[in-house]
From TrEMBL:
GO MF: acireductone dioxygenase (Ni2+-requiring) activity; acireductone dioxygenase [iron(II)-requiring] activity; iron ion binding; nickel cation binding
Coiled coil: none
Protein name: Acireductone dioxygenase
Protein keywords: Amino-acid biosynthesis, Dioxygenase, Iron, Metal-binding, Methionine biosynthesis, Nickel, Oxidoreductase
Enzyme Commission code: 1.13.11.54, 1.13.11.53
Record-level GO BP terms: L-methionine salvage from methylthioadenosine; L-methionine salvage from S-adenosylmethionine
Function: Catalyzes 2 different reactions between oxygene and the acireductone 1,2-dihydroxy-3-keto-5-methylthiopentene (DHK-MTPene) depending upon the metal bound in the active site. Fe-containing acireductone dioxygenase (Fe-ARD) produces formate and 2-keto-4-methylthiobutyrate (KMTB), the alpha-ketoacid precursor of methionine in the methionine recycle pathway. Ni-containing acireductone dioxygenase (Ni-ARD) produces methylthiopropionate, carbon monoxide and formate, and does not lie on the methionine recycle pathway.
Subunit details: Monomer.
HAMAP family per record: Salvage_MtnD
Enzyme class label: oxidoreductase
Family that this chain belongs to: Belongs to the acireductone dioxygenase (ARD) family.
Cofactors, names only: Ni(2+); Fe(2+)
Length: 181
């Protein structure tokens, strides 16, 4: 189930608000410039769907977002709990960082936990199947795929170089709950 927990950036002990309805999550994130929405496929997708099948199924939603923000490329990324490098992959984005580009993820299946640190708040956004999250360029955040990661995500990019992570050196991420899966 999708969930937004809102913390302050000085107290990680308990959230000050929790939202589970998609519309409520979107409303709470929107003032900070973070886009959250829910997409539905225009066809059934089997477990053997290729990258092209997945992109085709969400073509209309992808095109709308591409036009609005000027994205130049799209791909599909996946991980399963059997992945031999899952721990290294999890650790890669587990500390607070920024990118010069948007971080846009649409969850075709599976889940992931984004933490976004902005305006004195820490938003914990647990994304599940059907969720789109767009984090603006240069906004501090981290991502936890959990110890048993499972997801397939569509990613949108404006520039390939924009995807490099710039770590802030802060240890804030260690103070907030990890994803248990
Ligand atoms: Fe990131």
């Amino acid at each position: 189930m999708s969930e937004l927990r809102v913390y302050t950036d000085t107290d990680s002990s308990a959230p000050v608000a929790v939202h589970t309805l998609g519309a409520d999550i979107a409303l709470a994130l929107e003032p900070s410039g973070i886009l959250f929405s829910r997409w539905s496929a225009d066809r059934e997708l089997g477990g053997d769907a290729t990258q092209d099948d997945i992109i085709a199924a969400y073509r209309d939603s992808i095109d709308e977002l591409t036009q609005r923000y000027g994205f130049k490329s799209v791909d599909v990324v996946s991980i399963s709990p059997q992945h031999p490098d899952k721990d290294a992959m999890r650790n890669k984005f587990l500390s607070e960082h920024t990118h010069a580009d948007y971080e846009v993820r649409f969850f075709v299946e599976g889940e992931g936990l984004f933490y976004i640190h902005v305006d004195g708040k820490v938003f914990a956004v647990r994304c599940t199947q059907g969720d789109l999250l767009s984090i603006p360029a240069n906004m501090t955040h981290w991502f936890d795929m959990g110890p048993n990661p499972f997801f397939r995500c569509i990613r949108l990019f404006t520039t390939p170089e924009g995807w490099v992570a710039n770590f802030t050196g802060s240890d804030i991420a260690q103070h907030y709950p990890a994803l248990a899966n």
